[in-house]
Design goal:
345 residues; alpha/beta; Nucleotidyltransferase, domain 5; 2 domains; 12 helices; 43% helix
Amino acid sequence: MSYILGIETSCDETAAAVLKDGRHVLSNIVGYQYEIHGRYGGIVPELACRRHIEVISPIVENAIKKADIELRDLSAIAVTSGPGLIGALLVGVSFAKSLSYALRIPLISVNHLEGHLWAISLEKRVTKPFIGLLVSGGHTNLYLVEDIGQYRLLGSTLDDAAGEAFDKVSKILGLGYPGGPAIERCAETGDPKAITFPRALSKKKGFDFSFSGIKTAVISYVRAMYPVSHIDDIPGVLKGEESLISDIAASFQQAVVDILVSKTIAAAREMGIDRVVVSGGVACNRVLRGEMSRHAQRYGIKVYIPGPKYCTDNAVMIAWVGHRYYKKGVFADLRLNPDARSSIG
């Protein structure tokens, strides 16, 4: 019997979870910071780091309490060591190292990207290998996943991540933060065919993505109708134009989804693999989930997407990967340092 404590602090969520025997989720605690960063329209790294320091101890304590175990029952501690905001990562890694030393139990380093790719395993068993689309605020990567620790990077974003594009366009339209849910809500009453925004790299070979151009296209579209000198003035000139804002949001969302779906399905077909896993915060988007499944069905491809609670950042996925490394005897030591730009594949 094993109890793995997972700790995740790569961005603005402070999360802790306890996983029993790699299968049973005993606790899953996530502390959010929306109220802190919402006023700025995006994450402020310094504020995120300070908040992690304030709440990590009570969140870990709550995870242990909810799991109905004692600290001495833990078998190992798995912690996100990168990629992410360096200050945020330092908080989680330092806390995990201290706890590992005090309890004299193994410390396991887990890559945040690896956690997302395997989050589906908390709900469903997916036959390997599979194509993994990881799409979030900081990453848009396409992988061939062969096994734990065995990844081949097929493509990635050349500029903005998809989630970052959602946040930026949401701010431009005055819809608030986080941008993904805000855009999705607004788009519900809009026409996704009202405006034709560009699908960058859609006709080029390879599986790389680009989303910075679509943000510029949104700005250019508004400026073509209104004399706006600065993008910060756009929410003001669009005030009262709810129908127009909804059409822009819906058309923008559809353009991003089209790019993600087309590249992912193309990768699966080229690799001859009929299994696709979509993970990361943007995987919560209902249009993406629906379009990916619909297009994949045409080619006999099965699509697996975790429930929303395992799409966004959480510590259960870190504990799950940690358990696999625990079984393999792959441990870190107290020299472990976070790496803000670490990668896999």
